[in-house]
Amino acid sequence: MEPEFTCKRCGGPLKETDRYCGACGRPASIKAGNTDMRSVQLVIAFYITFLVYAMVSYFIYEESVTLLKELLLEGVFVLLTVGFCFFDFRGIVSLYRITTIHWRNLLFSLLFPVFSAVVVYYGMDWLDQLLFQEEYNVFYDYIAYDHSFLWAFFFICFIAPVFEELAFRGFLFNQLKHVANTNVTIIATAFIFALVHFSLLSILWIFPFGLVLGYLRHRYNTLWLGMIVHFIHNFIVLLLDFYYFGFGWEDFLI
Questions:
Q1: pLDDT at 29
Q2: What's this model's pTM, rounded to 2 decimal places?
Q3: Distance CA 186, CA 173 (A)
Q4: Which residues are CB-contacts of 22 (< 8 A; sequence separation ≥ 6)?
Q5: C-alpha distances in Å from residue 37, one per residue of 184, 207, 218, 232
């Protein structure tokens, strides 16, 4: 049964009789989930902002990709994410606490991204060749840079897991929890997460991937697990693409 109320400070579930929030530990400050118009406005602003950002980024990358452009675009993404999080500072901070995780879910969080990375890598490669007669390689975009693997690792394995989880399973998840139940929140964040990647074919895996990340965020009310899953998945895909070009361990720092 879904809780009727959420904590105004962190978005954690509350009962009407609770004196303290079980998520952030502060005195309960209850607000009915379906009446928070401020959260609705923030969700709409977030969606429009990041959809426009995704569209602009897509057309810039279609024209040409340089390290400077990459740094500028990723910098804008980080600033937008941090800027929105200031509207829910306490709720975001509470998501970085250390929590006890059942060993089965921890094991799942370590094994699932390995499975998803392999399936996505070979599955999407097969679909790309079947539908478009072409291959897509994430490392290819960085191969012309000095220290190409380090730059690819920075953008794909650090910026994406840290700040995409902060944006979608952090800020957006918190705001949607004020106006929707848990299932709708998990589905909506996964859908928007997939949509702003601006790739119709990628939705086939990004959406279910986002559902798993959303469930872990809800189950433990923390961003750490999602960041770990996201990192492992992206890192394995990057390694597979890296070795596609015939590089070895000695080439990591080149």
A1: 57
A2: 0.82
A3: 7
A4: 12, 13, 14
A5: 17, 27, 22, 37
